[in-house]
Amino acid sequence: MNVISLLVIIFIFISIIIFKNNSFYFISGLFLNIVIFIGYLIAISLHISVYLVTFVSFLLMTIVILYWINGRNAKTKLAFICVIFFLVTFTIVSLPLITALKTQGFSSEELIELANFDLNVDIPFSELNVSIILISFSGAVIDGSMAICSSTYEIYTKNPELTFKELFNSSFNVVIEVLNSTIYTLLFAFIASNFALVIYLQDLNYSFLELINSKIFVGELLVSILTGCAGILILPLSCLLGSWILKKRFHTLY
């Protein structure tokens, strides 16, 4: 038994203790997402459209996390609508920026390590770069939307007489509280994920100007910034869209 197998067993054991009867859906949902990711890699290697594979994978992961793990109910339906609306809107808005920065492909620092490999990869790296960014923020977007939609739904069911503005303001108070912790979580995640990279570039005696203009650093920074923006923007969007649906289209959730 290797270390990974032991950690998986410990993870499953802890999940069963904490989640009890719901542990089956939690653990099976995790492995379903792993299967989806493997299918995502296989589909791209078969030269299927990267954008199509990405959106289908994102959709499947959203269905697994919301409907399989959390159950099919009004709250998960509300979160699903918010996530899909955000995915389409954010992709349309951010796509020109990602394309303009041209951070796709390998950097000069990576080419040194890949010198012995064939670099003629028949995959459009510009599309793959967009795909990586969308997949990277999928978890944060789904979790954030579920948290806000659940709180908005509970506020509405306890106080159905609230107007749209009152419901939005009450829900937005929750957004502010969640946002405070989310910002620090994203900051520490960025520092942890890029700490080794900064040390590596420092060993190459890069100046600050060379550092902020290096392709490898800008690429990682772009992913982190867009992931952070997605994780933050989904909160007020879920608050606004969730409040509107609950007041105007509540019957459609059942």
UniProtKB/TrEMBL annotation:
InterPro entries: UCP031503_TM (IPR014564), YibE_F (IPR012507). The chain crosses the membrane at residues 24-42, 48-69, 78-101, 130-153, 174-201, 221-246. Keywords: Membrane, Transmembrane, Transmembrane helix. The lineage of its organism: Bacteria, Bacillati, Bacillota, Bacilli, Lactobacillales. This is YibE/F-like protein. Signal peptide: none annotated. The keyword Transmembrane applies.
